[in-house]
Amino acid sequence: MEQKKDAFLSGVRDGAPIAAGYLAVAFSLGIVAKKAGLDPVQGFLSSMLNHASAGEYAEFTVIMANAPYIEMAVVILITNIRYLLMSCALSQKFEPGTSMFHRFLVGFGITDEIFGISIARQGILNPYYNYGAMAVALPGWSMGTAFGIVAGNILPTSVVSALSVALYGMFVAIIIPASKKNKIIGGVVAVSFLASWAVSRISLFDRLSDSMKISILTVVIASLAAVFFPVKEEEEENTNEGD
User: Fold this and answer.
1) Taking the model in full, what pTM does it have?
2) Which long-range contacts (CB under 8 A, 24 or more apart) does 2-10 make?
């Protein structure tokens, strides 16, 4: 296994482009954080502790709704639960004797992009590679959020409202390619839109906050999709080979 210093520097090198991308994406997230009432320091800490766009957006939605802490915890858990699976998968690439401390620390710093570059490395994975990537990528994400809040405090209201739409554009950019590639995913996305609209119109759900509605729909729709359209092992293997 490569030395700690070499692994760390390799992580910094591979994480630098991710940091640049995060800086731009998190800027629009900062606009939403500003609307939720966070200042730049709070936004920076929020992104440093919860480095996921969907998770943070859910967090800010809960804050704007003045919902209780328990609801925030449930919403963020459901939104970010995929990182638990990523961490378990990544831990299989470590040497058997790797301590739990390293495993937990690497798991804390998992993002979609860091997981991607880590799982793609050949052979045994050195935790210091992840530390190098985290050292540049996570501050980039956090600073982007802080800069977005600062801009939200300076720019005119009309411009802030326009920039706040950028985050929705990012989510659309995530689901459209996947929906075009896989009809089942496209169908699930369409059902999600329709179900979300239907729930917003049914008085039975009026007492639930928007974030709780999203959480319930996420669990129900994802569970039904997993039951009726399970991914076969052969398909998973072919997907991994294609990557």
Assistant:
1) 0.69
2) 2/126, 2/129, 4/126, 4/128, 5/128, 7/126, 7/127, 7/128, 7/129, 7/132, 8/128, 8/129, 8/131, 8/132, 8/135, 9/132, 10/129, 10/132
